[in-house]
Structures are given as structure tokens and as C-alpha cells.
Amino acid sequence: MSSAVYARIRENPKFQELVVRRSRYSWFLSTLVVAIFYGFVMVVAFDPKLIGSPVAEGSMWTIGVAFGLCMFIGFWLLTALYVHKANGEFDAISQEVVRAAWKEGK
Amino acid sequence: MMRRLLTTLSLLALSALAHAGPAMEGAAEKQPLNLHAIGMFLIFVVLTMGITYWAASRTKSAADFYTAGGGITGFQNGLAIAGDYMSAATLLGLTAMVYTKGYDGYIYMLAFFVGWPCILFLMADRLRNLGKFTFADITAYRLNQGKVRTMAAVSSLTVVCFYLIAQMVGAGQLIKLLFGLDYNIAVIVVGALMMVYVTFGGMIATTWVQIIKACMLLFGGTLVMLLALSQFDFSYTKLVSAATELHANGFALLTPGNLLSDPVTAISLCMGLMFGTAGLPHILMRFFTVTDAKEARKSVLYASGFVGYFFNVIFLMGLAAILIVGQNPQFFEGGVVGGKLIGGGNMVVMHLSQAVGGNMLLGFLAAVAFATILAVVSGLALAGASAISHDLYARVIKKGAATEASEMRVSKIATIGLGIVAIGLGILFENQNVAFMVGLAFGIAAAANFPVLILSMYWQGLTTKGALAGGYAGLVSAVLLVVCSKSVWVAVFHNPEPLFPYEQPAIFAMPIAFLAAWLVSKMDGSAQARAEMEAFEDQFVRAQTGYGAATAASH
């Protein structure tokens, strides 16, 4: 856990790249989720009638339920997407960076 | 020792059964002794006691006790998080909410759910890479250990205590209703079982109690839903058209009602639920039980999958209950359809299970509700005990010089202490309105824990003074706002008008906490502050790569 290893990792351009890419990815997904959800809350607060109207004439599916279900499924798929990318691509870079810093120290 | 305790405990359970008989006529709410439910619950207790016995033999080090040695897999932890997160209030309260308010219940559940993806994207990696036993390990990583840990422990214990009292009072009332047991006996049984699980089995036993409970909850809910839907040929269209025809609100059933009539309340509620989740000490602690950041991410994926699935099950159960329970005079007091439900509004899902699956299914679901309470209070007690032993005792009082054995001893004593306090307050608050306590717990978690935690992980400029200012400002403002709101100022203190017009503190208390932390950090020009900012560099690398993170003990 020496500071020297941390410093070497920090100086590795690959590490910089990892940080930028991963944080861009996670902030993008978070903003997406928060924007969609609070947008929905705004509609709930300001136009509740719209939420309760059917998606199509005579249908028993209302916009609110249909959209809510889509959010449940969609947000969960986004978590799956993030886990896939972070556990695969990002972790591979991260391990490579740590290994390189170790080797350099020996 | 363990064996003797088990014997005492089964005796206690037996005497509870014997006691319940004569006292039964007294209370109006109390239901006849439910033998199916008690039988199934005893099976659960025997099973979890067996696991605790096994876990006790594997709990040797402090790491085993606090975090199960970091050896839990992502899938197991996902189930356990779901088990921790879905309390009895979720099962009973949200079904009842859909039954009476329709779509409002769905919005509520969405708000509960939406915090999870954000926790994954922004927090899961860093939590696992920086934390060890408690979330104060993260906030105090580069700041003054003593002061920051004291603050984290104070707000953790406040959250834990309010949440525990609410759960205990709920447990007593619920068990009185479902099992026909005396209130005090119910509270003592819950407290005693909780103490046994946590003191002997630590995190390993607590995790397995939560996993078993989550499986029972998912299975029971799914079964009730399927049996109920079979009456409508599994057609959502058929279910909704019948429900909207019958319900007093008609088609308005699926339109948002006045629960969220004003935007400030709506957003504040959603913020409290979302960020409160990310600041609950017993939920955060679960992230330290897995091997590495990979498994931490997976556990959120599984947990949010289970939680999201179950919320939709609850929505369908609530809609089906409008037709199946709402039309059946058997479930109403005096047999008047549309009157007061037997046992109160929260019993909707229990009546539904009886209607579709008879006494056997009712018994099963009642046992699930009891198990649910036990699992949640065990997680809370463990989180509270580790705040006392790991943060206050080992790091603040002994300044890191405590031996592992003494730290574990303190945590066990703390668990027993918390158990006794929870039982005492549970009995004391029997007839009080404790609904505000859950709101308060979430409010404090969102305003005191979350801002400092997220700033310590993301903002280099945070200093000790800033963290203290932010944490205490959030804690004080959340408590004050709840005390001045209707649920305490009017409902508890019997004043005519609330001082603070909103029920939810998050939208006001969170900005206060962030602002205080930012302002004080900015003004802090001390040498210590500079050193703390420099230390962020190394913390940042560890947070990103996991290099130097607490590793799993080999099991």
C-alpha cells in the first residue's frame, strides 16, 4: 500500500484514460436515470391526468403504468450494462495498470 | 453457551405460546392464535438457529464478525441487500397503499427503486475499494479519525435507533395481529432472536437470515400474485377493467392522487428515499461483505432486479386485492363491505393470501412477515454495534490500539445493549404513532450521512472541519424539520398547526449539509486541511483501482 505505487499508477496515462472514460460513463448513466425519473415526477406533479390516460383508445394500459414498468425494466437493464462494461473492459485496464506499477517497483 | 441459549430461547417461544391463550380476549385487535403461522415461523427459527450455530464456529476474527470475512458472493449479497431493504412495511404498507390509493403506490415504489442504479454508477466501486467495516472508514479515510468517526457514529446510531424503534413497534403490533401473541412477548421474542443471531453469528448469520427471508418473501409474494391473477385468467387488462369498475375512484385509480399533489413534497420524498437509501448504515455495510468491487457491482445488479421485480408483484397484488378482498364481507369488521378492514388497513395482503390460498398460505405469509422484521432488525443491530465497537471504541477511545478480541467483545456487548434498548423503547412506544420515525431515519441518512460520504469520495477539497460542519448541519436540520412537521409537532405534541409545512425534510436539509460542508472546507486554510487535500490523491487511486483495498479472508 505504499504511496510510491499509487504515484506510479497515477502517472500512467492508461490510468488517466480509465478514470476519464469510466467517470464519463457512470455520470452519463446517472444523469440519464435521474433526468428521466424526475421528469416523470414533474409530470406527476403538474399533469396527473396525462399519467392516468390510456396509451391507446380503449386500452387498459395507462401511460403511467406502462411508463413506470418501462422505467423498472429500463433502469435495471442500464445497471446490467454498467456491470458488464465495468467488470469486463474497465477492470481489465485497471488490473493492467496496477500490474505495471508493481513490476516497475521491483 | 450457545446450546444453552438455544434451549432457553425455545422455552421462551413455548412460554410465549402458552401465555397468549388467556390474554387473548382482552385486546380488541388481537386475533385468535394462528397455529399455521406459528408452526412455520418456528421452522424458520430452527433453521436460522442452526445457521447461527454454524456461523458462530466460523466467526473468529473481527473481519468475520463485521463483514463475513468479505467472502460473500455477489449473488448472495444481492439477495441479502434485497432482504435488508424490503422490510415488513414494504410488503404490508405498499400493498395497502396500492389497494387504497392505486397508482400513488406505484410512484412510491419507483422512488424506492431508482436509488439503486445511482448507487451502482456512482458509489458501489468506491464503497468497496475504500471501506473496510463501516462507512466511517471511508469518510475518515484521509480526515481526522477521532472527530469524523465520532460524527459518523452519532448519526449512524441515530438512524439505527429510530429505525429499530419503528421496526420493533411495528413488529409487536403485527405479531399481535397475525399470531395472536401478546405485544410485549412479541417485542421480547424479536429482540432476543436478534441478539442471538448477531452476537453469535455476526455478519455470516445475519446475511443468511436475510437471504432466507428474501427467498421466502419472493416465493410467498409470487405465489399469492399468481393465485390471485389466475382468477383473472392472468390478464392484466381483465384485472384493471374489473378493478377500475369497482374502485370508488373509478378510472382515477390509475391517476396520481393527492399523495403527490404538490411538487415540493413529491421531489422531497423522492430525494429522501433515493439518497436516504445511499446513506443507511446497514445497507452500506453490506458492500464490505463481498470479495471485491466486481462482486459489489454484481450485488447491486441482483438486488435491484429482485427489488424491482417484487415491487411489480406488490402492485399486482394490490390491484387484485381491490377485487378479491374489497368485495368480500368476511374481511371487514361486522361484515360491512367498504367498512374497516379486520386488523386495519395494513392487513390487505394477509387477507388476500387467505382468500386465494387458505389458512396455510396465510400462515406462510405471516411467518414471512415475522422473518422479515427479524432480518431487518438484525442488520440494523449489527450496523449499530459496529458503529460503537469499530468507530467509537477501537478508533476514537482506544485510538486504534484496541486488540481484535477486545473490539469483538465490545461489539457483542453493544449488540446486547442495543437489543435491550430496542426492547425497552419498543414496549414504551407501544401506543405511540411511530410512522415519523422511519421518515426521520431516511431523512437523517440522506442529510447527515450521504452528503459527507459522497463528498469524501468525490471532492478533493473536503476537509475535516467541512465534513463535521456538513454532517452535523444535516443531522440537526433533518431532526429539527421533522420535529416541526405535522407528523411530530401536531401528531405527537398535539399542537394545532405544524411549524414546517412539509412532511419530508430532504429537499431542505440536504442542500444545507452540502453548503455547510463546502463553505467551511473552502474557508479552512490550515496546514492540516492542505495535508488532507493532498491525501486525496492516493485515496483516489485506491478508489479507482482497488489497489490496497481490504481483501477477503480465505475461507
CATH topology of the domain at 39-56 and 68-435 in chain B: Sodium/glucose cotransporter
Low-confidence stretches of chain B: 1-28
Q: Please report the number of helical segments of chain B.
A: 20
The percent range for helix content of chain B is over 70%
Describe the sheet with the most strands of chain B.
none
Calculate the terminal CA-CA distance of chain B, rounded to whole Å. Answer: 25 Å
Cα-based radius of gyration of chain B, to the nearest Å:
23 Å
The major beta sheet of chain A can be summarized as: none
Work out the strand percent of chain A: under 5%
Helix and strand succession of chain B? HHHHHHHHHHHHHHHHHHHH
Order of helices and strands of chain A: HHHH
Mean pLDDT of chain A: 88
Which spans of chain A of ≥5 residues are poorly predicted at pLDDT below 50?
A: none
CATH class of the domain at 39-56 and 68-435 in chain B, named Mainly Alpha
Quaternary organisation of the protein chains: heterodimer
Helix content of chain A: over 70%
Give a brief outline of the structure.
The complex is a heterodimer of chains A (106) and B (555). Chain A contains four helices and no strands.
